[in-house]
Amino acid sequence: MKKSLLALAVLGAFAGAASAQSSVTVYGIVDMGITSQDTGAGANDRLNGVTSGNQSASRIGFKGTEDLGNGLKANFVLEQTIAADTGVLSQVDGKTAFNRFATVGLSGNFGAVNLGRQVSAIKDAYDAIDPFGDGGTIAPISAIFFNAALKGDNGRISNSIKYTSNSYSGFKFGAHYAFGEQAGRTGADSNYGLNLGYANGPLNVQFGYMSGDDSTAGAPGFKPVKNSKDKMTFLGATYDFGVAKLHAAYGDSKNQPVAGNVDNKYRNYMLGVSAKVGAAGSIMASYTVNDTRTFGGVKANDRDSKRAGIMYAHDLSKRTNLYAGYSHTSNDKNAKLNALVADQSGSMFAVGVRHKF
Amino acid sequence: MKKSLLALAVLGAFAGAASAQSSVTVYGIVDMGITSQDTGAGANDRLNGVTSGNQSASRIGFKGTEDLGNGLKANFVLEQTIAADTGVLSQVDGKTAFNRFATVGLSGNFGAVNLGRQVSAIKDAYDAIDPFGDGGTIAPISAIFFNAALKGDNGRISNSIKYTSNSYSGFKFGAHYAFGEQAGRTGADSNYGLNLGYANGPLNVQFGYMSGDDSTAGAPGFKPVKNSKDKMTFLGATYDFGVAKLHAAYGDSKNQPVAGNVDNKYRNYMLGVSAKVGAAGSIMASYTVNDTRTFGGVKANDRDSKRAGIMYAHDLSKRTNLYAGYSHTSNDKNAKLNALVADQSGSMFAVGVRHKF
Amino acid sequence: MKKSLLALAVLGAFAGAASAQSSVTVYGIVDMGITSQDTGAGANDRLNGVTSGNQSASRIGFKGTEDLGNGLKANFVLEQTIAADTGVLSQVDGKTAFNRFATVGLSGNFGAVNLGRQVSAIKDAYDAIDPFGDGGTIAPISAIFFNAALKGDNGRISNSIKYTSNSYSGFKFGAHYAFGEQAGRTGADSNYGLNLGYANGPLNVQFGYMSGDDSTAGAPGFKPVKNSKDKMTFLGATYDFGVAKLHAAYGDSKNQPVAGNVDNKYRNYMLGVSAKVGAAGSIMASYTVNDTRTFGGVKANDRDSKRAGIMYAHDLSKRTNLYAGYSHTSNDKNAKLNALVADQSGSMFAVGVRHKF
């Protein structure tokens, strides 16, 4: 019995030392593959290489949760993207930064409130519906939905406060406000958004909205014209039929380019599917459309973009998988929405490995 | 008993694995709040936002200590500031850096010697007296004491060697030398400093001194005029009356702006108080004065700055607290010492959360 | 017995929590010393300071290995250099980066395959022969062997795939290919390399080769002239006589400067020794020669460089040592190979501490 007590004493001492450490979890993803792209730049435009983040953005993060008692918790997250093929770390405002998350906040029975740099409320909604939910480069919703100028910095917002509810009978909602931080002009450069979701059994429905104002050109983030408002609306759903899950989404957005004073209006559609294949495989595919309705204030012609993408992932473990993905993008002759392809068709093929740590 | 031995054996194996990890501690602070500033820029100058580091600078660090036997230890620290509201990491010389600490050294019966980038000896002295000891943005001594041009990079020095003594009957002292690293001009751009402290019972007295030379303009750090010397002297004390602790400090400094060849002379004063309020609360307040004696070599008129600040912190745990702080700064009509306010009065209100990990 | 079971249960719970953490190891080196250099810039060129990485580059890294079963493992490494004297982190392509390693890959019975940024195959070969194997600044092979313009970014390559074999009866080999990632010009800017080693008892022989192509100027990495090929060949060996280990190496390289279209050819020689001195000491020394054979396409005159270096390291533990090192470099009157010294002789003396964590 003395030995048992000794064991407990040693355990106690050790657990104490370890809990001093346990306040931080170092985590992340390294995802790289061999890729071959038809960049759409012309006759001789094949680009082969090693690229990072084909299935999920490579990243490193530091996070922790402290139990404050009575269900209250303090939380922090610091997370940044890595272009792992060159090792380069991501930037915000031209400086190396925890570009994905830099937050502190409290959570509990009331939900969670976080301050800092984080995901916009509408991005939470569309990521939950996207078959390529973790993003990546093959065919994420965010590559086609909502003009990049409108979305700001990949759907991530600085200087923000965000509320996320707990789930009530399957319902969950969230809202954010991001300060524009322009002296004497409260509201300038600011944006806000919200989401409302319902997840129950096989059904998951997500609604999101975001609106931004801008009175200053050149600043990072959400950048419409002076005194204008940008708006994005998202509605999507998934339904799990057992053998496969169906994904569908609709987006509607309006923005004004900095140089003009007239609206651009877009409608976006996505139809997708995801399914388990055997014990270790999974497949995801989507067809995404950007329908440009109005450009420069007049009815748009030949400004649509379409992307079809498919990926197969084969698990080697819960943390590690191999993947192969392919996407084909076609732009109308006046469409330049996608950075990969200007006015032409293009494609991308990737085979690689994703490791979570 | 066999089971106990097994427990110990498992423990041993596990402790071994853990000790392979235990050479590094990942630690830091994320501190953010909602702030509203009267920036003093004119009639319409209110700046609202989310700001980082109101009570203590947000930061992430990696540190470790190795026991070398006979009381000797090897130590390292790598620590950097985070502008958590945008996620941006701090820079030194225009590049992302462990701007707070990048040191390696030995410690033991003789005290501690560290090489690299670290806190200047005089900063150790004034941080120990400041009611807002952890810095932050409300009313730290460093915002008023010692003209920013004189202090160099927030009191942090590169290319340095620093000695810190152990405590002898309450007495403790330290000294640093930072190389200027100008080829063929030993001493150019260099600086040195020292501190002497006495802490015993309710009394803590701190003295600090720093002197810097510069022969090259434009370099980082301590930047007076060619062949000139900059000097800072600090004397401060705290006395704990039980119900509250009284803080008082005096500073005297001299520098020469790069464009001129004539002295600027300053005297600084601080009177402060800190106290526990109930089981979980603490309050800290100070009144800080910069008295510009000589500017451009002639007697200074209307060049004084004053700041009054107060903060209340409410502990949710040992590691997490909420806070509310307010400061008011008034500059004489020719005073531009404080970056926040030029030639006018201003104020800052912040309410937020600080989480240590 | 109940207490023992409790101990095991607590252990189990705790081990579970810990193993969730165990997928990442945070590691690194902080190495700094006081240095005095004769920079060779003229009569008054002494440079004293605190420098980082005299014995081994200061660095911080994150790595992990996951056992996938059947001997298969998933591995990742993220590692960057720190100029610890100022805290500044290293850059790739002008941005802060994991400049040393950013890899993900699989290993097993077949060897290891890794994607991303990593060490070139030829660098593996010369690092294994160099008495100053960890690099540093005193007298590493890489300071003299293979013109810096030819080697690319310190022997580290981006956008690469690399294979490393396991050991077969002492034989081991490796090969890499780094994509140039120039659209429509596969092979442009690319490079490849290989190594073959034999280590058995006292003998270690290493052969390495690297070839690079470049059609674009200004890009990072391996940069010869349009349509030209750069080539490096390395052969080296060590033999352990027990009392001391002898090191010898030969290098042959050819490149073309960007501005010209004519060959530069070099031959390099290294003779070195390393030995244990007592229980805690070790000594390493080398004499390295760059023999410029052809410069700008014509026979080279007075373009040779020679460096003699010696270092003594005294272990305080397995992880921490003190060191003193000295090197002397002499350049022929037209030689500018070494960044430290242009057209003249120079020297460097360093005394410091290296701590591994």
From TrEMBL, chains A, B, C:
Its main location: membrane. One of its GO terms (biological process) is monoatomic ion transmembrane transport. Residues 7-333 form the Porin domain. Keywords: Cell outer membrane, Ion transport, Membrane, Porin, Signal, Transmembrane, Transmembrane beta strand, Transport. InterPro entries: Gram-neg_bact_OMP, Gram_neg_porin_domain, Porin_dom_sf, Porin_Gram-ve, Porin_Neis. It comes from the Bacteria. GO terms for cellular component: cell outer membrane; pore complex. It is found in: Cell outer membrane. It is a multi-pass membrane protein. One of its GO terms (molecular function) is porin activity. Pfam families: Porin_4. Residues 1-20 form the signal peptide. Homotrimer. PANTHER family: MAJOR OUTER MEMBRANE PROTEIN P.IA (PTHR34501:SF9), PROTEIN YDDL-RELATED (PTHR34501). This is Porin. It comes from Herminiimonas arsenicoxydans.
